[in-house]
Batch of 3 targets.
Target 1
Amino acid sequence: YNSEIQRSEKMEIISQLAASVAHEVRNPLQVTRGLLQILGEKNNNGSRSSTVSEENYYQLAIDELDRASVIITDFLTFAKPQMEQIVELNLAEEFKHVEGIIVPLANLQGGKLEVNMPRSLRIMGNSSKLKQAIINLIKNSIEALEGSGIVRVWAYEEREHVVIHIADSGNGMDEQMLARLGEPYFSNKSKGTGLGLMVTFRIIELMKGTITFKSELGVGTEAMIRFPAARYMQTNAKVI
Ligand code: ADP
Ligand code: MG
């Protein structure tokens, strides 16, 4: 029992450390990327004609930096270095922030996002973690559209639970792929990390939620997340 406590304290320290590192590393990555781009362009326009392989090196370096950024995004977009707070969250507000981040991405990659969120839904959890989990799911849906289609998000209360649906008209998955979701490094994308859903599943579990998927190849995918409603958790706490 004692060693369990130590283990979770260590996990807490590790995740706080990871959050600080992510914040610190993102900036130099961006700066380096910008400099490489300038150097690459200078070399292209300069009188001295650059070799094809030299141009490739710049592009390769930029691609690798982008890859590092994607890993940080899948893991730690919203990670906050301070202690994790569990508070009552209003889903409509959380999703407003998520939309702010996802809509530009959808515009860039093609595909539409439609969010239908009643104002009254509340759950207990950590805001940064919840947003990270939802972003990873919606990002997958947008990527599955491969340029055109729609991602629909809606939610409602059902007895003591809040239920969130994220449905896309993307390329879908067969049973074997569905069974492997959340497995670290399982990815079918050339630039995927295969870490997004692993992180998402862990967060949902920590927030006492569950997630299930329905999918059909060539038709689309629907994720359904269930969290205990905040109202119910508080009532319960009062009873105890
Ligand atoms: P990544 O997105 O980096 O590949 P994820 O853990 O987020 O890693 O997803 C793992 C894999 O699951 C994806 O590569 C994709 O094949 C599949 N997948 C996840 N979500 C969807 C979806 N909405 N539609 C189709 N395939 C999906
Ligand atoms: Mg992903």
Target 2
Amino acid sequence: MSKQIFSKEKIKELINEVNTSFEIVNINKFSNDITIDLLIENFTHKSKSEARNNITEVLSKNFDSTLNFKINFKPKFVNKEDSNKLNNIKNIIAISSAKGGVGKSTVTANIAVTLSKMGFKVGILDADIYGPSMHIMFDLVGRKPLAVDVDGKSKMKPLESYGVKILSIGFFTSMDQAVIWRGPMATKALDQLIFDSDWKELDFLLIDLPPGTGDIHLSIVQKLSVNGSIVVSTPQIIAMADARKGISMYRQQNINIPVLGLIENMSYFNPPDDKKKKYYIFGKDGVKNLSEDFDIPFIGEVPIIQGLRESGDIGRPGALQEDTELSRVFEDITRKLIINLTERNTNLPPTEIVKIKTMAGCS
Ligand code: ADP
């Protein structure tokens, strides 16, 4: 057989012969090295290795032997069927922070219990795969979700605490076990939490995202129609620098998830023994100014409250309290969030599930 000269079209044709479901993202040639980036659905080691062997074989047969083929795989998500399974969830809200330790999980937990107090059906998906904390904040350490049968399929039943349904990777790891996963493993675990679970009817599913703008974020927007996002930050300059990146990620043309608003956490400290004093430990109004810069609604501010930290540690979100400063702060924030969400749902079409082809712009 006469050998072909290099041609992207021919490579595509040959890869399609091996498997029509492979999606070719990129083909690059540097000298004699040809790099091919593919999306594949079955992202197991075995199927990747089989795919690599089959593709290399067919390419070597057809092209000159001086060419070296390097094949990279990324997981391909099949959206249609998966997304249908979440039709019983009315609103999905992603909560992110760009920087770690700014109180994103604390804010998520307290908004969730406030929504539940208001009578909504609420779930939290703790997608902070590398540092899950919802199992601690909701006093569920050591508990494991049960398997239930749904239409002949085994599903995870979210655990419930204070009226909030919760699934977290924290249910499957021990407290002192570090989760060191590669991107694809983490997204696979997340897939199970999202799709192999029996959420039943929910008015709100809050997704507590890991800090940053990485794989997990992209994986979520590829699979779920997220109504909107909230970005939590302290007013500190270095936290806000990261928050800017987070906002830009949602606003990228190919992601395009409306940012419902910004929440400033740890805005100030009001000492209990002198209520007139306010200490702006992390700076003043930083997030408010950021929201003006980006023309994004400012949802509210949460002061540093010792009771908020303590209640998180003992596993009973502080906003469950009745008629305290803490519960009022979260009632205001939650009300504003609902208003912004309703406005978004009225004025904008549903968010499309994203088909991201490159990681450009995302760290
Ligand atoms: P993140 O999810 O951004 O990593 P966490 O919600 O885990 O952050 O919060 C980090 C720490 O700060 C926790 O110990 C939490 O209890 C505490 N914390 C968060 N917000 C406040 C606040 N407003 N007042 C007091 N402590 C807070």
Target 3
Amino acid sequence: MNAFLESLPKIELHLHIEGTLEPELMFELARRNDVTLPFDSVEQVRQAYEFEDLQSFLNLYYQGMNVLYTEQDFFDLTAAYLKRCHDNAVMHTELFFDPQAHLARGVSISTQVAGITRALDEAEATYGITSGLILSFLRDMSEEHALETYEAALPYREHFIGVGLDSAEVGNPPEKFERVFERARSDGFHVVVHAGEEGPAEYIKGALEVLKAERIDHGIRSLEDPELAKTLVERRIPLTVCPLSNVYLKTVPDMSAHPLPALIEHGLCVTLHSDDPAYFGGYMNANFLAVQAAFDLSRDTWRTLSLNAVEAAFVSDMRRDALR
Ligand code: ES4
Ligand code: ZN
């Protein structure tokens, strides 16, 4: 069964490119850019990856990405991730980047987008992996800053397919970003929103009704509101669930307590992804194997999860047929 899961063709729909920064590359880029890291070794970095909650992870995540400066850095980061995609039988990936986190260090959106898209183009040519880039706003910053960032990104609009919302959830409800999401939607961008990871089901409702999210990232607290769950089922709104992320951030006590089986049983359009694989114990295959070890899902259920991802992907009809 593990060999079956490892070779199963996959679609990644919830992945933060900055969350693929492995400690080895972090050190290499620190050396290249003369950045002093608060760690002495790769082992020490890995030992620091003990998280209590989302915020304790975000602190290390934002610190780690401080080594990214040049177009080549963004290329190297993305190329390393795409090699992992190839090794994990990922055929299509829709990845987030956090432009505001890099603008804060004086790195232009042009530099970020150029490095990331050069790697994406190269992976399509060498591995046949297709992709889409999603510009994610940091919800713990102001909506004004999100709007300014959106404006700064518009000259590169042909390089991204949608907008997302991530970072510290509790206290930063979706409603805070109504104007910028309305703007992006009217410009023809896809809309996805992190909701119901640490935050309540109420935030999922806000993401859906106010921001008009086409997919909910995480959404593992959906069943806490039966009326909401019913809407999600009826409207076939995908939930991009990241099992190892939820365990590492103690959103669930352990994998056996994960609501995944209940979400599937409920008829929700669940898909499985890796979120920040350098920080959460592994890439797509690691997530699939961890789920299988905990729940022993049938091949039929795996087939359903795969087809859900085909349905949830932002691709052309032709590419969707090829992925099926
Ligand atoms: C994130 Cl796991 C998670 N949750 C919210 N925002 C994020 N950004 C990167 N990883
Ligand atoms: Zn995420």
